[in-house]
Structure formats: structure tokens, C-alpha cells
Amino acid sequence: MADQEGGFSPETILTHLKANNVTHVVWLPDSETNFLYTLMQAEPSLTLVPMSREGQAFSTAAGLSVGGAKPVILIQNTGLMESGDSMRGWAMGMNIPVVLMVGYRGWTRHGVDTDTAATYTEHFLHAFGIKYYLVESDADSDRIAVAFERAERTKQPVAVLIGDEFHGFNQTGR
Amino acid sequence: MFQTLDMFKAFAPFRGNAVVIPGRGGRHWINVSDKPDRDVPLGDPAMGGHASFALGLALARPNEKIILFDSEGDILMNMGALPTIAEMDPKNFYHFVLDNGVYATTGGQPVPNAANVQYDVIAKGSGYQNTYAFDNLEDFTNNIEEILSMPGPVFVTMKVAPEIENVPITQRVRWQKKTRDQTIADMQKDLGPR
Predict the structure, then answer these.
(1) Could you give the CA distance from residue A27 to residue A12 in angstroms, rounded to a whole number?
(2) What's the domain range around B28?
(3) Nearest one of A13, A7, A12 to A27, comparing CA atoms
(4) What CA–CA distance (Å, rounded) separates A116 from A142?
(5) Which of A64, B106, B131, B140 could connect to B56 by a Cys-Cys bridge, CB 3.0–4.6 Å?
């Protein structure tokens, strides 16, 4: 964090979810989005839909979307890779305009991955032809709005890779 | 054990205005239903996802009754969906499962521990308040009205006869009458704005 101007605050993500009229957050916890959970719970315009495996997120989001709601999927890159067939069939195949907020576990801005989850994440997205935007700090957060616009325009999933851990495991330490 | 088509014929008079997602039973349901614009026969976008899809639709449309005909193979592939459904507690969701004990579309190989898995017990343990299991049409027929009159989520598993397909996938005849996009568009038009 020390070398990132301003860092990336969960409040910024919440602001973008509200600005884009998101109704449901389909999610499975990860270290990158831990503190965001508390904020989302307190936000009356959002309904949290908890998953036990990330593949469920895409079919759940498909049902929400065709029903007229506006879901966002909030998962980690490890779970994204587990979700390949569900993403293909339920999101891409059904033309679901959904933004995937993906915790980029293992990523560093210096290009030295700290585990293989990061090594394969962008290769995985390339393989499926899914456009993605990297967000490291609040200064990058306009890319979230770009992702929402692109998802709506193309009727396809678009990913936002969250390249920072929220530092909210202990809120008193924020 | 009973026939899927017979089950659908017994169910149809009690469907009301519900949205029906017929799952792998779609080939029969589309010939029984009298409200095709409220039917969502998606075929198989990706196995294991029908329950979560139906949950999403139920959450998006809390004032519409959503009825899913799932399969035991789909349940086994994504059993973690059941606690999510129970936690979200959609009062408008009715979760039926066609349990034929096999992967019928791949030639009829048995699902794991086919003879012994109790899907209603799993659903109950996942948090569904109301669960049923039927192995004959008469009991199903006698209970269907009550089931659909209680608040969801309700889980109903049924022992149905397998209808095994051995034709190669590339040679199978498409049973859907509409494209997937048209199916969704017709449902959305019939439901109206959210």
C-alpha cells in the first residue's frame, strides 16, 4: 500500500455499486473484499446473496438479471477459475450484462506474483474473451464505471480485477 | 416411480399463473403447458445451475410464483445452492426435483449412490422448512395443491422413470419450440417491468 497513492477504499466500490443501480451482490468472501462486506450489509439498497461455490454466482446472477434486477458478482480469482463452465453457459451464453468484481489474489504491481492464482487469472479471462479492468487504488476507480457501461452495451460479463487487499480484517486498525 | 409426463399432467391444473422452469423435463412440459410465455425451458446452459437461476429469478420477482423442475444430477453437481436458497428464504419459490437415478442424457449411467441419496433430507438439513418425497403419482397428485398453496421455499423430490438418450449429441433433435433469447424475451414481456 505504501507505494500506491491513496490506496483503494471499500467505500469507493460501494459508491460505484450505488451509482450503477446495483440491486444484488452475489458473492463469496475473500480477503480482498472483507471489509466491503460490512459496508454492503449496512446499505439498504443492496441485497447480499451468499454463495458456497463461485460457479453458483453466474446462474444466480442470470436469474436476477432476466428478472429485471441488477446483480454484481463479487468473488476471488481462484473462484473465477472454478466457474468456467457456469460463466460460459449462464452468463456469456445467456447474454447477461454483469460486472464481476474479482479479488486479484497474489497480484503485485511489481509484476511478481505471489501465488499461481495471480499467474493464471488474466490468461483465464483472455481464454474466454472477457474484457477486464485493473483497479489498484481509488484513482483507478473510474474503470469500474467503464466496466458497467461495457457490460450493458455488450450484454456480456466484464471483470474488474481488484489489485489490492482491503485492510479491514480489524476495523479498528483502519 | 412414475412417468415425468404423467407428473406434469397432474401438476398442470394447479400451475396458476406461475413462471415454470421445466429443467430437463422441458421436452414434456412444453406440450402440456397452456402458458408458454411463462415457461422458461432453457435446456442446459451449464449443468448444476438451474436451482441458482431459479433463485435469482425468484428474488428479482418476489410477487411472481417461480416453479423449478430440477434434476438430482443437477442437485448433486451444485448442492451448495441449497443452503443459499434456504437462507434467502424466497416465499415464492417451489423447488421440484426429478430423480431418475441416472444421467439420462449421457446414456443412463447411475448418479453417485443413486439408490440411497435422500434429497428431501438434504434439503431439510440445508434449511428448507417444507420438504416432500414422492415415489408414486397418486401421492403426488393428492398433495400438489397443498404444496403450491404454502409459502416457499418448498422442496419436493420425486422418483421418476429414466428416459435414457443414447443418440449422439450432434444427432439429437432439438425439442425447444423457441430460441433461448426468445424464451427470455417472451417471459420478460409477459411479466412486465420490475
Answers:
(1) 18
(2) 4-191
(3) A13
(4) 28
(5) A64
pLDDT score of B170: 84
| Confidence class for position A30, pLDDT limits 50, 70, 90 | confident
Does residue A54 carry a pLDDT above 90? Answer: yes
Which of B59, B188, B190 is most worth mutating to test chain A (most A CB atoms within 10 A of its CB)? B59
Q: Which of A75, A167, A165 is CA-nearest to residue A121? A: A75
Which of A62, A18, A63 lies closest to A36, judged by CA? A18
CA distance B111 to chain A (A): 20
The residue behind cell 410465455 is B37
Task: Collect contacts of A140-143 with beta carbons under 8 A, ≥24 apart.
Answer: A140/A8, A141/A8, A141/A12, A141/A13, A141/A16
Q: How many domains does chain B have?
A: 1
Taking only the tens place, the pLDDT of each residue in A69-87 is 999 999 999 999 999 999 9
The CATH number assigned to the domain holding B183 equals 3.40.50.970
Please tell me which of the candidates B81, B87, B188 has its beta carbon nearest to residue A66: B188
Cβ distance B162 to B101 under 8 Å? yes
Contact between B45 and A65 using a beta-carbon 8 Å cutoff: no
Q: Residue type at B94?
A: Y
Is A90 within 8 Å of B49 when comparing Cβ atoms? yes
Nearest to A90 among B53, B61, B191 (CB): B53
User: Does the predicted interface ipTM exceed a cut of 0.90?
Assistant: yes
**Do β-strands A132-135 and A158-162 pair in parallel, antiparallel, or remain unpaired?**
parallel
**To the nearest whole angstrom, how far is the Cα of A69 from the nearest Cα of chain B?**
5
What mean pLDDT value characterizes chain A?
89
